[in-house]
């Protein structure tokens, strides 16, 4: 992509994205670009189209028109599975961890199969998996809970575990739908810390309603309204935008 005279490669380039449900455009000619190592947050009133944008990117919903390029690959023609393999991970609002398994086991079963170079040397693979599980557990603040059954974790710890189950697959882009909903204040602070920690190797696209959390994490914010961008930029600019105050923040 050429902007001015500068050649720029975005991790994610969404252009003219539209989806129509029986003539109703839930997402309407939407364009935005996410950089490598960026935390981008989508905010906006109920029904603005935020979840639908994530559904389109992960292939759950088919676009009516427009383009979603991820590292130059067109995602709109790919299946959800191919999109995961291309490096896009998505966490839904409700955790989908296995309650009767331990933290270790939940992470272990999420480790991508068939990606190892060790082939039949199972013991080497086991060591690599264990090392990776431990590293991810540390990132998600659960290193000392590796052998705890997931059902005994707090709500926040369960959310972190699910983020860990995505991280172990090493997606380049992580999409999170309201990750701090239902969390305590201290868990929210730690989640912000977690996201800042992982962006050295990932970009993150988050839907969120908690404005304090948005301020803590967002490099840039998109305000969505009726399927279109109402405002975009740094949180400081966006939160003082009269249009945003009128349709969203003022309520
Ligand atoms: N599969 C579908 N069929 C028909 N309409 C849909 C479908 N999915 C979403 N919509 C509609 O598209 C609009 C946008 O919904 P969406 O869930 O993306 O909004 P949102 O911004 O995520 O809202 P919230 O903050 O309440 O989660 C809503 O009017 C919704 O009813």
Automatic annotation (TrEMBL):
SUPFAM superfamilies: P-loop containing nucleoside triphosphate hydrolases (SSF52540). Pfam families: ABC_tran, BCA_ABC_TP_C. GO terms for cellular component: plasma membrane. The keyword Transport applies. Keywords: ATP-binding, Nucleotide-binding, Transport. PANTHER family: CONSERVED COMPONENT OF ABC TRANSPORTER FOR NATURAL AMINO ACIDS-RELATED (PTHR45772), HIGH-AFFINITY BRANCHED-CHAIN AMINO ACID TRANSPORT ATP-BINDING PROTEIN (PTHR45772:SF8). This is Urea transport system ATP-binding protein. InterPro entries: ABC_AA/LPS_Transport (IPR051120), ABC_transporter-like_ATP-bd (IPR003439), ABC_transptr_urea_ATP-bd_UrtD (IPR017781), BCA_ABC_TP_C (IPR032823), P-loop_NTPase (IPR027417). GO terms for molecular function: ATP binding; ATP hydrolysis activity. Residues 12-251 form the ABC transporter domain. The keyword Transit peptide does not apply. Gene3D superfamilies: P-loop containing nucleotide triphosphate hydrolases.
């Amino acid at each position: 992509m050429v902007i001015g005279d500068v050649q720029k490669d975005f991790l994610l380039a969404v252009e003219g994205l539209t989806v129509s449900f029986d003539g109703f455009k839930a997402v309407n000619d939407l364009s935005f670009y996410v950089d490598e190592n960026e935390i981008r947050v989508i905010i906006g009133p109920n029904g603005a189209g935020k979840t639908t944008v994530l559904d389109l990117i992960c292939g759950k919903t088919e676009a009516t028109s427009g383009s979603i390029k991820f590292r130059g690959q067109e995602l709109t023609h790919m299946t959800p599975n191919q999109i995961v393999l291309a490096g896009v991970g998505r966490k839904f609002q409700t955790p989908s961890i296995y309650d009767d398994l331990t933290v270790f086991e939940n992470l272990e079963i999420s480790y991508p199969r068939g990606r190892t170079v060790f082939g039949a040397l199972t013991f080497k693979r086991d060591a690599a998996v264990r090392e990776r599980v431990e590293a991810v557990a540390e990132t998600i603040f659960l290193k000392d809970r590796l052998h705890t059954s997931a059902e005994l974790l707090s709500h926040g710890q369960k959310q972190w575990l699910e983020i860990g189950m995505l991280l172990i697959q090493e997606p380049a882009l992580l999409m999170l739908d309201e990750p701090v909903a239902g969390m305590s204040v201290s868990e929210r602070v730690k989640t912000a810390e977690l996201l800042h920690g992982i962006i050295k190797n990932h970009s993150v696209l988050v839907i969120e309603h908690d404005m304090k959390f948005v301020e803590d994490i967002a490099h840039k914010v998109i305000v969505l309204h009726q399927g279109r961008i109402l405002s975009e930029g740094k949180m400081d600019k966006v939160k003082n935008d009269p249009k945003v105050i009128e349709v969203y923040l003022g309520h």
